[in-house]
Predict the 3D structure of the following.
Amino acid sequence: IAGITQAPTSQILAAGRRMTLRCTQDMRHNAMYWYRQDLGLGLRLIHYSNTAGTTGKGEVPDGYSVSRANTDDFPLTLASAVPSQTSVYFCASSHLADGANVLTFGAGSRLTVL
Amino acid sequence: GQNIDQPTEMTATEGAIVQINCTYQTSGFNGLFWYQQHAGEAPTFLSYNVLDGLEEKGRFSSFLSRSKGYSYLLLKELQMKDSASYLCAVRDQDYKLSFGAGTTVTVRA
């Protein structure tokens, strides 16, 4: 692993199903983020975590939950998927102690809810 | 919260210069970033400004005026590979990054 790994790359699921998007980083970054990207709306922050054991809500948290049991993993769960959650989901991480706090992004997970 | 505006699309010719403007209104400014995103790929970091002025990095430069809530990204000597979406992002006091909708730049031969 080098950087951030997201899984699955792509998924189609029925409305009402539960889905977990996985995100793992090997850079020992303390902060991790989940964004969704929709055409015309750009990247919107769903949830974030500044350090293991803590999480916070972003701009569009409803319908999503996260956990941060350790430094490396930050899964995003859709408890009961709805069609409006069809999107491309990007996980990102950064090291908050760095002055620039540059985000490194995973390759994305394309989710289609029917 | 953040309100970030940038043009939707721009087209330019190979070898030319293009300037992408970004204006923002923020409740707590703690830095401005530019990211590049090629179609179907993840965003990648281009530049960072936290103080007023120009930051130059090769063919790309970024400018910030905090008093005007304004930034621009300047792309010089355009190449076909520069065709991509360019995302302006503002960081708040809690280190969260909010993104504009992005500007799609198309470089023509």
In short: The longest strand of chain A covers residues 31-38. Residues 10 and 111 of chain A are 6 Å apart (CA to CA). The interface with chain B takes residues 31, 33, 35, 40-45, 48, 50, 56, 58-59, 90, 94, 96, 99-108 of chain A (CB under 8 Å).
